[in-house]
Structure formats: structure tokens, C-alpha cells
């Protein structure tokens, strides 16, 4: 047993890895049903853990991350609407979870999931229209919003080079004057796990298409999250315009 431990320790040191300390952690998932003035309120909190493999953009290549996801929801039974929050915390695997996490993501949303071990996607659709927020797992940085399910694909057949597409409906308070044009439909985002690559402004000759997009902008203004103008991406991606004629 001692010989095996010594070999494993020597192998870790040879490749520059710091041996991880054994640890144990637990978190409680809860559910409660309460009645007040004839209305029943159901509250649920679910906690799950996930370990992310190595080679995560934004982290050392040999490092693994431990993620803790907490989803809390509150709904009044037999009434429309609900409240839900998704929180993601990340630590280097082997870190005592009583220590401050590397980052914390918290957003209104019914759930969240990892994509390819590099992205975290939060389902923000608390109302009739579904939409999502996309974050980097390595840094917790927000990348973009999308009003269609995230599309992922590889740009190479020889090696796996993942790229992602999303479509955002810009908010009414967007600072970029181009997004205030009534013919604007949305912004197409092209990204990788490292960050945004390119954004294309989609416009239409059909006034109704722009009106529909404006309706979505008004409906999904979110006071809990500071939304940004898509065309002013944090990584300064290339910007272009794509016009759609009907």
C-alpha cells in the first residue's frame, strides 16, 4: 500500500500535478409545502455535484473543477407563473468547500447544465418564451444570451474543435444605435469555449418581424441580470450585418 502511494505521488510530481487532498462534502436537497389563506406554496431546492475534466479554457491544463449546482424554485399551486434561481459554484477539485469558490454564477432560471465540459447553460424561460444564458465553466464569465437552443458543432473532421451558435433578441435599452432600428430581428452569436468569435446583426424587410422582436424585448427585460448590448461584446468580436428579405 505504501509502495503504491509512493508511485502515485511520484507520478503526480513528475507531471507537475499537485496531489489532491481527500475530502468529503454534502449538501441538502429540500422540499416544503405550505398553506396560507387557501393557497398552497411549493418550494424545492435541489443540489447536485459534477466534476469537470482537464483542459478547460481559462484554467491550468491539468486542473479539474468541482461544480456545485443549486436550483431553488417557488410556485403557488394552481396559479400561473413561478420563481426559480440557478446558482453554480466552482472549486478546484480537492479544495475544501468551506473555502470561497473560484466564482459563483447566479441567475433567475429553472435549471442549468454543462455542455462539452466547457460551457454552462442556464434555462431562463420562466414565462411563455424560452431563452438561455451561456457561461464559460473555466472562468464563470457570461458569454451571450440565446432565444433558441444552443447549437454546437465541430469545424474539423480530424480533431474536435467545437463552435457554438446562439440568437439573441436585443433589449430595448441597448446602447448600440443599430439595435434600435425597427427592422432589427436579432443578433447571431458565433463562439467557442474560449470566447466570442463573431456577431452578425440580423435585419428583415418585413416590418412585422421587427415588431415581433420588439415584443420579445419588452417581455423579457430582466431586472435581476445586467444585460449588455450584444454587438458590444466583451471580447470585441468581429461584427457584421446580415439582411433577410422576405
Folded structure, characterized:
With 246 residues, the protein is mainly beta. It contains two helices and 14 strands. The strands form three sheets. Strands 1-2-3-4-5 form a five-stranded antiparallel sheet, with no helix packed on it. A five-stranded mixed sheet has the order 10-11-12-13-14. Strands 6-7-8-9 form a four-stranded antiparallel sheet, with no helix packed on it. Strand 12 (184-192) and strand 13 form a beta hairpin. The longest helix has 13 residues, at 2-14. The chain starts with a helix and ends with a strand. Mean pLDDT is 79; it is low at 1-16, 220-236 and 238-246.
How are the SSEs placed, and which strands pair?
Elements: H1 2-14, E1 30-36, E2 39-52, E3 65-76, E4 83-92, E5 103-108, E6 111-115, E7 119-123, E8 132-136, E9 142-146, E10 151-154, E11 162-168, E12 184-192, E13 195-204, H2 207-219, E14 238-244
Parallel strand pairs: 13-14
Antiparallel strand pairs: 1-2, 2-3, 3-4, 4-5, 6-7, 7-8, 8-9, 10-11, 11-12, 12-13
Structural class: mainly beta
Strand order of the largest sheet: 1-2-3-4-5
| Strand fraction | 35-45%
Radius of gyration: 22 Å
Count of discrete alpha- or pi-helical segments spanning 4 or more residues = 2
Distance between the termini: 72 Å
Low-confidence stretches: 1-16, 220-236, 238-246
Highlighted features:
mainly beta, 5-stranded antiparallel sheet, 5-stranded mixed sheet, 2 helices, flat
Condensed summary:
The protein is mostly beta strands. It is 11% helix and 43% strand.
